[in-house]
Sequence to fold (264 residues):
Amino acid sequence: MTTATPDTTTAALSVRGLRKTFAGRTVLDGIDLDVRAGELVAVLGANGSGKSTALRCVIGLERPDAGSVRLHGEETAGQAGRRPAAVSRRAAMVFQHIHLVPRRSALDNVCAGALGRLPLRRSLTPLLFPRELREEAMACLARVGLADRAGEAVARLSGGQQQRVAVARALCQRADVLLADEPVASLDPAATTQVLDLLGVLARDEGLAVAAVLHQPALARRHADRIVGLRGGGLVIDAPAGDVPASALDDLYSHGPGPEGTTP
Fold:
């Protein structure tokens, strides 16, 4: 199932011909993907289909073998750790395993999203976070519904609340492209709904471009504007969520896992 050729002039994130191999095995086989401001795109596929690898290549954690990644039309270097700083700040990633500092407050963790914008001496300790940054971080916590927990140690928050702190940290980075790699995999149903509702609000109400790797087709159909499906490293579905039949989603998972040794 495919759609018309994407309009790259309006895409916040535009990926073309992305290829990646591990130990001679093809994980991404020349995929094209656009994510526009104001939409939540769900990325589905069986283990080994290339979902997480695609996001890691976009954010610069993996170096693709070929292809291009553009953020608002600006080409990134396509090499891990070598993207221009101005471009790097425009995209942020939220992970399945929440990378927060447990003993620090929610506010301090959100402030850390702005470390790339601070002079080195101020980035070494939370005590030196400027007042303006702390106010900005409080506003980000308010956007995810956690302003009242700002002073609480992250370790005391629930899993869903911690994931929302991670989203607030990405917002404090001032990113307008938000990538989420299985952000609800370890959450209970209530927290799952809260996090996915939040991603939808950030996309549709605040104009972010959001792409989320999910493993649950039912959640993708319920929360996403568009569904992208990967199988064997190739893009096999790219359509509005309401237009994707259940049989097409079932087919994504009917061929078993991807090549042995690949990253899901």
About this structure: Residues 189-204 form the longest helix (16 residues). DSSP finds nine helices and ten strands in the chain.
